Amino acid sequence: MGEVEVFKGERGVRVYRRGSAYGDRPDGVTFEPTERWVRAKVGSTFVVDSKRALLLWESGTPVGTYVFPAEDVRTDLFVPAAEPSTRRRLLASRWYDVEVDGHSLERLAWRYDEGPLAGYVGLDWFGRKEPGVEHWYEEEEEVWVHPRDPHKRVDAIASRRHVEVSLDGRKLADTHRPVLLFETWLPVRYYVPPEDVDFTHLEETDLLTRCPYKGIASYWSVSDAPLGKNVVWSYRDPIDAVGLIKDRIAFYNEVVDITVDGIVLERPKTHFNERLANDTPDTTGVPPTGDPAVVARAARGTSGS
Known about the structure:
Shape: globular
Oligomer: single chain
CATH architecture of the largest domain: Beta Complex
């Protein structure tokens, strides 16, 4: 998505570079059909049950969401509501609270009335802080945080590059056996064996975050570092597709200094920079308890019943 023309030859042949960031998409709204069976559940009620969903991306939002034909949504639970002052949706015509089991979920749903999206309904998901959908399913597998993007790959690959990590002149890690995690639109993340990390500079925190591609992450801060809060993480029970990163330690390239095979990498600019600077991590989809056993079970849960 988001190809950028970089050259046009004498015979009119154009050369394009694929977009390298979340923002490299057309302005406005982009959508495509998906054949995945998608359901959304609040309590014991499925408020969405659809095999005709669309994946939809909006400019200014780093990830996509689902929208559905109104016939596949429990619109009988909708109560008209005013448009929210924040988290607005492009092209949305009407907003609704959703009332389920005596609880009102404010401004959870919106509807489109114009263009090719007319008659479709969306439910607020990624980054929502207020109560909302409790469980999302694709087929029989639970999905957290946001839909997995069909245009994105996440590959964990063992390597023998020499990786050094430091911050404010203190060496945090030094390894010749990293696992490199290549994730479309993000910098390469270097996952280091814990034996090659100097934990004397780190302080474990109670932060947990969730990724639909990797699982639940726990965090450390770098002690006495102005921008060192929650910049180190590990997946103790990752999703099987990236099992090689289990228990390994990664660092935000945006904040620390990483040297690979003697070359100091430039600190990248991503949508994480603002979160790190303001200490506003996204905890969408994290279980409401820090109990490790509960977190581990939730990380691997798949039941849609």
